[in-house]
Amino acid sequence: MTTAWGWSDRLSLSYEPMDETHQEFVQLCAALAEDNPATFVQRLDALIEHSVHHFDQENIWMTETAFPPAACHKQEHDAVLEVMQEVRRRVASGEEDLAVRLAEELPHWFEHHVDTMDNMLARFMLTQSRQNAELQDAQQLSA
Ligand SMILES: [Fe+2]
Ligand SMILES: [Fe+2]
Q1: How far is the CA of 1 from the centre of ligand 2 (A)?
Q2: What pLDDT tens digit does each residue of the chain (143 aa) get?
Q3: Ligand nearest to the CA of 21
Q4: Which residues form the Hemerythrin-like domain (predicted)?
Q5: For the CA of 19, the nearest ligand
Q6: Distance from Cα 109 to the centre of ligand 2, integer Å
């Protein structure tokens, strides 16, 4: 028997606002694997709604911090959202096997995305806020 996919420390990026959002993504994404075709579209809608806000928040952080690979990161968000919406349309019109494929593929996409783009963004924001704090300390000392 395979263990159900879920949150683990392996996914933590030590940046609390992002980890909280990612826990919600993992919960909604893992719920797609539930074997109940009658409610799949409803569960996918919940994940899509979450993802729109999740990705918007990260896109805002990237703009605020002038994150260099912002375009590349945003493109990954747009692409996966497009896949979710396409699967939603096709499952709703009878291609139910795509539901299982999406539920299997999304955890892999997410783990890779967290390891690369989100990890880089979290490190970048943590470094920036540490540098800002150091700058403020230095300014107070010289005042
Ligand atoms: Fe994320
Ligand atoms: Fe992201």
Answers
A1: 31
A2: 467 899 999 999 999 999 999 999 999 999 999 999 999 999 999 999 999 999 999 999 999 999 999 999 999 999 999 999 999 999 999 999 999 999 999 999 999 999 999 999 999 999 999 998 899 989 888 87
A3: 1
A4: 15-122
A5: 1
A6: 11
Q: Dig out the tokens for 132 from the structure.
A: 């800002």
107-113 — which CB contacts under 8 Å span 24+ positions? 107/5, 107/29, 107/30, 109/80, 110/25, 110/26, 110/29, 111/11, 113/76, 113/80
Tokens (6 digits) for 12: 């933590």
- Say if domain 15-142 classifies as CATH 1.20.120.50: yes
